[in-house]
Amino acid sequence: MKSIVYALVFLFSFVSFSQDNHIVKTEDGRRVLLKADFTWEYIDLVKPEPTKQKEKEIEKPISSNENSCSLSANYTEPELNKKVQNQLKKGRATIAHVKKKVAKDFNCDVKDVILLLASETKEKGTYKFCVNGTKTVYKRTGHNIAKKLKLF
Fold first, then answer.
1. Mean pLDDT on 88-113
2. What region, left, alpha or beta, does residue 45 occupy, with left being phi > 0 and alpha being psi -120 to 50 degrees?
3. CA distance 83 to 44
4. Domain boundaries in the chain?
């Protein structure tokens, strides 16, 4: 009896996965429905018009200075939650430890690492630094500290 039930569950799941339709986007922005029987049709019949903001983003040249940072002489770093920092002392994951890690990765002194922005809890945190005129982002998960990677 169990084998019959398993066979029916497998059959129904196999059929449901094989009949999957997909929606894709063309280069001009229209959406197309790709059907399981190898046919297709437009979902958006009218080609979408680009908005003014998208046009500005397209026209804006990409500069190499996007990752550069310049700070005023009287810049002060934001203050972090002292309760969270005290809890992180045991695992060596305070802001001082994070700065040491950043300085080690960039081969510079700890005084050259300046905190721009921080978002943290006891479990995780994200820190944005200015290191020798370059912006970088590090993340902390528990007591592990690593550079945040951009995948896309």
1. 89
2. alpha
3. 53
4. 2-60, 82-147
Residues 15-73: tens digit of each pLDDT = 655 566 778 888 877 888 888 777 888 887 666 676 655 444 444 444 445 677 888 88
**C-alpha to C-alpha distance for 119 and 111, rounded to whole angstroms:** 21
112 vs 105: CA distance, rounded Å:
12
pTM for this prediction: 0.55
Q: What is the pLDDT of residue 128?
A: 92
Task: Produce one character per residue of 78-98: b if its CB has 16 or more CB atoms within 10 Å, e if not.
Answer: eebeeebbeebeeeebbbebb
What is the rounded distance in angstroms from the CA atom of residue 19 to the CA atom of residue 56? 41
For every residue of the chain, DSSP letters joined together read -HHHHHHHHHHHHHHHHHT--EEEE-TTS-EEEEPTTS-EEES--SPPPPPHHHHHHHHSPPPGGGGB----TT--PPPPPHHHHHHHTTTT-SHHHHHHHHHHHHTS-GGGEEEEEEEE-SSEEEEEEEETTEEEEEEEETTEEEEPPP--
